[in-house]
Amino acid sequence: MAEYIRKQYNTLKARIAEPRKFIQVLAGPRQVGKTTLVAQVVKDINVPFTLENADGIAPNNKEWIHQVWQSVRVNMQMHGHEEHLLVIDEVQKIENWSEFVKAEWDRDTLEGRQLKVVLLGSSRLMLRKGLTESLAGRFELIRVTHWSYSEMRDAFGFTLDQYIYYGGYPGPVHLINEERRWRKYIKDALVAPAIEKDVILTSNIYKPALMKQTFELGCAYSAELLSLTKMMGQLQDAGNATTLASYVGILNSCALLTGLQKYASDTARKYNSVPKFQVYNNALLTTYKGRTFAKDRLDTAVWGRWVESAVGAYLVSQAEDLNYKVYYWREKEHEVDFVLVADETVIGIEVKSGRRGMNSGLPRFKEQFHPTHTLVIGTGGLSLENFFAADLSRLIEALGS
């Protein structure tokens, strides 16, 4: 089977071919194929390249970045290369990495050296901090998101039901027929390093066990509202609501789990609302809450929740790249599953998959907020197949016009 080419491949390849102007930064969660994507690109270009990985380097090794950079400079001079590409994976693992990168990049700029640079990182929190503090004006960001239904279908032959249940991680695709093994892989090879390396080690988490519990409970409640006060009652040594809110914020920064706020006309009501938990990849929900694919598919209520969570996962995973925000809305028995806000465009979304009967949420929402458009996904509206296969940027543009 030929290697699958994601759209970010073309973006990165084109930018490397351009005259040296910006550092290219590939940012995205673990196990979505950033390293594979770079390997595909460097194989198809004529620029000499060097690949380095900071994952096993001591975080306080202040000389590592300089040594890597200097060895590339020497290599360029020895072989008479007019240009060279340096790729550093997991760069955020080095303390103060952005200051060191800035110093080396600025030196090459000053000396007119055509040393192009690509940086990869799985912790959006640490990458963002370094990029905004030290490298402002020196980089372009290429976001590598979780895999969409179209990508999983075209690359691995996933059906829509399989995508809804197993989510968009390409690595363990071959394990889905051994579900216990698949779940173990998700927990051990994906969640554990993401929490322990990308979250706890880089965010000054004082209660690591509480962070892990918060993550697991939040995943289990994906597509459900759960107040932080009630959440504290289900956690050991929970601390306070402010601590839990900060932990959810960090998990959101790492594209794992978020707590959607209630849509409201004023900011204060949004921030004080009960969060609706939402995973970025439905594999994180079914790993912690699912029974088996066969059992859950036949349970109408359970499958309806899986579908709603999958819709939410697709929406939140694309939100930063497409520059929109995702909320929910509920008032007594009236509910709108998701509310998308992009500039002046407001779109109310209801997901219908047999989970519940008729819902008066959309009419009440329209009456109160006068959204640009409302959309039903599933029964009686845009089919699930068409929604998950849609280019969200085009869908939002069409609904907003």
In words, what does this structure look like?
The structure is a single chain. By secondary structure, the chain is α/β, with parallel strands linked by helices. It has 18 helices and 11 strands. It has a 5-stranded parallel beta sheet, sandwiched between helices. The protein has a 4-stranded mixed beta sheet with strand order 8-9-10-11, with helices on both faces. α9 packs across α11. The relative contact order is 0.09.
Gist?
The protein is of the alpha/beta class and 401 residues long. It is 49% helix and 17% strand.
Spell out the blueprint of helices and strands.
Layout (H helix, E strand, L loop, with lengths): L6 H11 L5 E5 L6 H10 L5 E5 L10 H16 L3 E7 L7 H15 L2 E8 L2 H10 L5 E5 L5 H8 L3 H7 L12 H22 L7 H13 L7 H6 L7 H13 L3 E4 L6 H5 L4 E4 L3 H7 L3 H6 L1 H23 L2 E7 L2 E9 L2 E8 L8 H9 L3 E6 L5 H6 L2 H9 L1
Parallel strand pairs: 1-4, 1-5, 2-3, 3-4, 10-11
Antiparallel strand pairs: 6-7, 8-9, 9-10
Helix pairs in contact: 1-2, 8-13, 9-11, 9-13
Q: Rounded to an integer, what's the Rg over CA atoms?
A: 22 Å
- What percent of residues adopt helix (DSSP H or I)? 40-55%
| Largest β-sheet summary | 5 strands, parallel
Mean pLDDT: 91
Strand order of the largest sheet: 2-3-4-1-5
What is the strand tally? 11
Sheet-strand content, in percent, reads 15-25%
| H-E order | HEHEHEHEHEHHHHHHEHEHHHEEEHEHH
> Low-confidence runs (pLDDT<50, min 5 residues)?
none
* Distance N to C terminus: 41 Å
Category from helices, strands and their pairing: alpha/beta
How large is the count of helical segments?
A: 18
**C-alpha geometry:** globular
